[in-house]
Each structure stands twice: as structure tokens, then as C-alpha cells.
Amino acid sequence: MTTVLLGLALVVLVIDQGTKVWALNSLTPGEKVDLIGSFISLNLIRNPGAAFSIGDGATWILTIVSLAILGWVLVAARKVGTMAWAVALGLLLGGAVGNLGDRFFREPGPGRGHVVDFIDYFGWFIGNVADIAIVVGAGIIMVLAHRGTPVSGPPHHPEHAHD
């Protein structure tokens, strides 16, 4: 399960960073490009905050919160016992590392870097591939939690091992 989790995280990270490089080289800030009518478009911004630009003035706090979440994912990853949890945590890990990479390595400086966002949803908010992975991963985790599925998977009942 760990191989699936880490492999998926790596795939998400590579796609996220690749699309951000593409966006920075191909899009012009302020010049919106419609993809699916005006519903989904490309619109390059550098976001100092979180979703919906919440926390614009507290980028370093968002970095600390992201590191804490990353720590939780890494601890949980050691216990993964189901494919669903491996996929959910892999998506979350890849997305978190993708956006943390921006926070650490992009302007204006380490821990305060702005995240590259370029996928505009209905003019409501602008995100990136890492955000998609984080939202999908969190959605899977909510379903698993609602079902009561622990990270380690269903309990093992030795008395049924030979059935």
C-alpha cells in the first residue's frame, strides 16, 4: 500500500509542477483564456493565501499549517491498510508537497512564496492540480471516515482466517 501511496503522490507532484511551469511560460496574468465557455478557464495568478485567497497576509501561517498536515499524512501513511486510504493519502501528500514547494521556492521568499494558480472555476476561485488532488483526497477521507473505515483497514478476525 505504501508503494501506491508514494507513487501516486509522486505522479501528482510531477503533474502539478509541470502544469505550473507550463502556466508560467504560456499564460499572461490578467488575460483569461476560456476552455469550457466561461465556466472553466485559464487565468494565471500568484496566490499568497489559501482557497478563495483567504489568509493573504498570513502566508507563513499557512506554511506551518501545511507542514502539520503533511506530518499527519506521513504518520498515517505508515499505518495504511486499504487501497482507498492509500489513494486518499497519496493524493493529499502529492498536492500538499506541490503547494508547499511553491511556498518554499517561489517569490517573495522561503515560507512566504506565492502558489501558482491558473484553473479558474466559474469566476469563483482559481486553483491548480495540487488543489484538485487535495480536494479529491479529502473527499475520499470524508467518505472513509463516515463509513468508519480506519486507516489500518478493517479489523482482522483470526477465527475467519481459514474460511
Explain what this protein looks like in three dimensions:
With 163 residues, the chain is of the alpha+beta class. It has one domain (2-151). The protein has helices spanning 2-26, 59-77, 83-105, 129-147; strands at residues 33-36, 40-47, 115-121, 125-127. The protein has a four-stranded antiparallel β-sheet with strand order 1-2-3-4. Strand 1 (33-36) and strand 2 (40-47) form a beta hairpin. Helix 1 packs parallel to helix 3 (83-105), helix 2 (59-77) packs antiparallel against helix 3 and helix 3 runs antiparallel to helix 4. It is globular, with a radius of gyration of 18 Å. The model has no long low-confidence stretch (mean pLDDT 87). The active site is at residues 117, 131. Pathway: Protein modification; lipoprotein biosynthesis (signal peptide cleavage). It is found in: Cell membrane.
Written as H for each helix and E for each strand, in order along the chain, the element string is HEEHHEEH
Q: What's the total count of β strands?
A: 4
The averaged pLDDT comes out at 87
Count of separate DSSP helical elements: 4
Unreliable residue runs: none
* Count of structural domains: 1
Overall body shape = globular
Radius of gyration: 18 Å
Structural class: alpha+beta
Quaternary organisation: single chain
Helix content: 40-55%
Read across the widest sheet, the strand sequence of neighbours is 1-2-3-4
Distance between the termini: 24 Å
Please indicate the percent range of residues in DSSP E strands (runs of 2 or more): 5-15%
Biggest sheet architecture: 4 strands, antiparallel
